[in-house]
Amino acid sequence: MMKNLVVLTGAGISAESGLKTFRDSNGLWEGHDVMEVATPEGFAKNPELVLEFYNQRRTQLLTVQPNKGHLNLTKLESFFNVEIITQNVDNLHERAGSSNVLHLHGELLKVRSTVNESLVYNWNKDLVLGDVCKLESQLRPHIVWFGEAVPMLDTAIEITQKADILVIIGTSMQVYPAASLVHYIKENTPIYFIDPNPSVTENQFKNLCIIADKASNGTDKLLKKLTA
């Protein structure tokens, strides 16, 4: 029976494909205050700005490709039952061929109704005011904004609790509630932390192996360690 390998990924794995990371060091997101473009209040105040912001992100996503980090994770499926929990809103894991991907913070290539959040539609073009769901309600990006609940969190916790091995790639472990997932693993579960600038030290967790490298090189090393 295959072991359960749970992978938690953040912006660092997508950065190598050319997608900019979530926020610059000055707190701005593509030159915008996060509160303007990633909150329900920002959307209520200036929906056109918010829709255009995500239109630009969506357009950019369609021009990039999965990188070796994404592709290496698909190779692990030959050896483990791999489940990926990602903070990323891109679809690069799926395009690389990963079978089980849970998006904690929503998906850029989906939109949903503003009155019924279960009405979700695939969307790969610009979203503008006047685009409505079947209830004639304006559509919005299918993104979990600041101040909103994370509906997939309970599922992510259940997946993490089953992990025989936990791999963390390209995330600072500063974004909650995603960062809390590491506390749900069984005691003595091996943890592999891949990041060029690790935000953790090996004495923070039992059985922690830090691979201080970017996702593509780090997952090469991970493959060798786990499949040797």
Describe this structure in words.
With 228 residues, the protein is of the alpha/beta class. The protein is 29% helix and 21% strand. It has 2 domains: 1-18 and 66-105 and 149-228, TPP-binding domain (Rossmann fold, 3-Layer(aba) Sandwich); 20-63 and 110-143, SIR2/SIRT2 'Small Domain'. The chain is built from 8 helices and 11 strands. Helix 6 (92-96) links the parallel strand 4 (81-86) and strand 5 (101-103). Helix 5 runs parallel beside helix 8. The chain starts with a strand and ends with a helix.
Short description:
This protein has 8 helices and 11 strands.
* Coarse structural class: alpha/beta
The helix/strand series, from N terminus to C terminus, equals: EHEEHHHHEHEEEEHEEEH
Number of strands: 11
**CATH fold description of the largest domain:** Rossmann fold
Through-space gap between termini: 18 Å
Largest sheet: 6 strands, parallel
What shape does the CA trace take?
elongated
Total helical elements: 8
CATH architecture of the largest domain: 3-Layer(aba) Sandwich
What's the arrangement of secondary structure elements?
Elements (H helix, E strand, L loop, with lengths): L3 E6 L1 H5 L12 E2 L2 E2 H4 L2 H6 L1 H15 L6 H8 L5 E6 L5 H5 L4 E3 L2 E8 L6 E3 L16 E5 L9 H9 L3 E5 L21 E4 L13 E4 L3 H13 L1
Parallel strand pairs: 1-4, 1-9, 4-5, 9-10, 10-11
Antiparallel strand pairs: 2-3, 6-7, 6-8
